[in-house]
Design the sequence.
């Protein structure tokens, strides 16, 4: 029997299905409309900005780094542009294979590979790192022809720092190097974060570090329109970068060159100051290093050679080398005696050639002694016994209290970083410096050595130079500085670098006059008279010799029987002209022996340069290097007649 269809029921079912489908379509359409409204109205600004950013790119423009000049405008640090071949590790294939393939196109030396490996360890994989620098035009063309073979490898035009005189004054100038992670973190947390976008290098030492803000300049930006593939199509807008300012130093680079030449292969440090202003005229640490090695990133072999050298060329001896001052301390001891009333200028002692304390004999350097010795003679002839007795009478804490105002054992505040404080001993210092009770106790015998600048005394040459400047400048405490002025890169206007005003310490002028007069006597008739014979100006000075190796009571010092690095250090402090000092010097020649022989002759040539405009003859410089000259030999030259720049 055939079943009859229920047409009405089927129509009702169909209508329900159409209604449900219509509702689903309506809801879907409503959702699309709502989404469209959300995107078009609610998120319009955000999406428009994203679209614009996909169309454009903001590229930082790194500024030219500022120049560094000496006081006469001679350029000590500048920039040049060159092409570099760079690899972005995250975009390149296997690095070893990539470098090997590149080496078939462009010469890549083992040194390049080592430097790249060192940079890779210090950087992130998405950073572009140089594998070769200073490419020639021919090398650029060779790589460009095969660029398609090397994803993640590209040629970039970069500015490179250049130090035209290499090792000359490197400890004062410093150098730049790639920004490491610690420096990047510090920049990111500072207000300068935006100004360092795109910058790979930063000042690491010396003026380059301390005046980084002035030298860096202001980063610019370029807004570029890009294609879908990310390639630049055209420039939409730009803000030019502002070059860094020029920093002019107080250093005279010709004088610096003379001093470094006179040191030769010897180790040591020298600081020459204008005692009236605190300007540093020469800032020498020997041996030196070539800062150009650090610009691209120094390779491991050169780094190891510098870092492990017994001569420690990376040590800034003028700033961080601390030495016993030896007999250069005696004028300050004599001044303390006058200030405390422990001695008068006329008061004399009888010097038998030694001083006895508790069964220990402290020997004078002159066997048999100096006879009857007053204060003037004690400085002129450098009588140790006089100062053994004086130190015993003063005591360690009185010595400390009268030396501290002269800056011994405290930072000078010079405008480069890394200065060491040195050590000015006292009973309080010893109590805090040692743990054991027997070590914390101060013994009377320890005071005796302080009188001749030995014992715990350790100061920098920079401190000694400033203290001498205060001695000859009526107690004015100046702050040494290397930067003289900053020249604006845009306006070219020179602004003097503002430094702290000098302050006068509490010391009687009549006592200072006694000490200055005795130091003049040192150069006229005393231990350094031979070096200043015939000088047309009057100067003052004090020689010093400081032990490196302790000599027992029953032994005598024989330099020829002692290893070179254990021989005495030679020191000298000096000023000129005596009536109105315009230059002060403090210096040390490590293991150089007697200050009168190794150091004072150098001071004479420096004064001749600064006061007379004279440059020593070649034979004279050679003799000074070997400590075989006192007064100048040969015919001196006029400074302006000496060829410049010097031959490499």
Sequence:
């Amino acid at each position: 029997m055939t079943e009859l269809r229920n047409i009405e029921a089927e129509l009702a079912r169909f209508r329900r299905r159409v209604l449900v489908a219509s509702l689903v379509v309506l809801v879907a359409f409503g959702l699309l409309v709502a989404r469209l409204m959300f995107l078009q109205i609610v998120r319009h600004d955000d999406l428009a900005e994203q679209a614009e950013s996909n169309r454009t790119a903001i590229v930082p423009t790194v500024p030219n780094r500022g120049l560094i000049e000496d006081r006469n405008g001679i350029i000590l640090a500048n920039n040049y542009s060159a092409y570099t071949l760079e690899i972005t590790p995250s975009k390149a294939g296997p690095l070893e294979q990539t470098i090997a393939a590149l080496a078939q196109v462009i010469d890549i030396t083992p040194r390049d590979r080592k430097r790249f490996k060192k940079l890779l360890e210090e950087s992130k994989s998405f950073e572009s790192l140089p594998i070769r620098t200073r490419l020639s035009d021919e090398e650029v063309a060779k790589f460009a022809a095969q660029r398609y073979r090397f994803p993640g490898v590209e040629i970039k035009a970069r500015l490179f720092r250049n130090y035209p005189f290499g090792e000359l004054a490197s400890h004062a100038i410093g150098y730049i190097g790639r920004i490491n992670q610690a420096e990047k973190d510090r920049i990111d947390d500072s207000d300068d974060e935006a100004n360092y976008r795109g910058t790979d290098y930063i000042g690491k030492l010396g003026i380059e570090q301390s005046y980084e803000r002035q030298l860096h300049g202001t980063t610019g930006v370029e807004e570029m329109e890009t294609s879908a593939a990310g390639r630049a199509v055209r420039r939409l807008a730009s803000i030019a970068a502002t070059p860094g300012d020029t920093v002019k130093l107080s250093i005279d680079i010709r004088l610096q060159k003379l001093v470094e030449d006179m040191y030769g292969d010897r180790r040591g440090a020298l600081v020459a100051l204008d005692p009236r202003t605190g300007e540093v005229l020469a800032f020498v640490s020997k041996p030196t290093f070539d800062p150009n090695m650090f610009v691209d990133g120094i390779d491991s072999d050169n780094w190891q050679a510098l870092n492990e050298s017994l001569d420690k060329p990376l040590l800034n001896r003028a700033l961080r080398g601390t030495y016993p001052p030896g007999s250069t301390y005696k004028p300050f001891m004599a001044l303390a005696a006058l200030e405390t009333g422990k001695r008068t200028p006329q008061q004399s002692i009888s010097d038998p050639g030694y001083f006895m304390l508790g069964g220990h004999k402290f020997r004078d350097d002159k066997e048999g002694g100096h006879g009857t010795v007053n204060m003037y003679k004690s400085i002129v002839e450098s009588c140790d016994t006089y100062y053994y007795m004086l130190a015993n009478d003063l005591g360690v804490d009185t010595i400390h209290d009268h030396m501290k105002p002269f800056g011994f054992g405290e930072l000078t505040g010079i405008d480069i970083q890394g200065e060491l404080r040195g050590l000015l001993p006292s009973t309080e210092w010893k109590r805090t410096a040692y743990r054991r009770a027997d070590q914390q106790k101060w013994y009377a015998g320890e005071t005796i050595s302080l009188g001749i600048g030995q014992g715990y005394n350790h100061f920098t040459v920079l401190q000694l130079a400033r203290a001498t400047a205060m001695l000859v400048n009526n107690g004015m405490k100046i702050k040494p500085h290397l930067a003289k002025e900053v020249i604006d890169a845009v306006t070219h206007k020179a602004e003097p670098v503002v430094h702290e005003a000098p302050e006068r310490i509490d010391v009687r002028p009549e006592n200072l006059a006694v000490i200055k007069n005795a130091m003049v006597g040192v150069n006229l008739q005393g231990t350094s008279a031979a070096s200043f014979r015939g000088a047309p100006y009057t100067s003052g000075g004090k020689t010093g010799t400081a032990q490196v190796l302790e000599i027992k009571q029953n032994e005598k010092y024989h330099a020829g029987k002692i290893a070179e690095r254990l021989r005495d250090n030679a020191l000298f402090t000096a000023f000129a002209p005596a009536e109105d000092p315009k230059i002060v010097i403090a210096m040390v020649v490590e293991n150089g022996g007697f200050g009168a022989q190794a150091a004072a002759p150098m001071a004479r040539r420096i004064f001749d340069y600064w006061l007379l405009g004279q440059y020593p003859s070649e034979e004279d410089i050679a003799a000074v290097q070997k400590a075989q000259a006192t007064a100048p030999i040969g015919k001196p030259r006029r400074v302006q007649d000496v060829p410049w720049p010097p031959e490499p």
Summary: The two ends are 121 Å apart (CA to CA). The chain has two domains: 60-224, 253-641. The chain is about 35% helix and 20% strand.
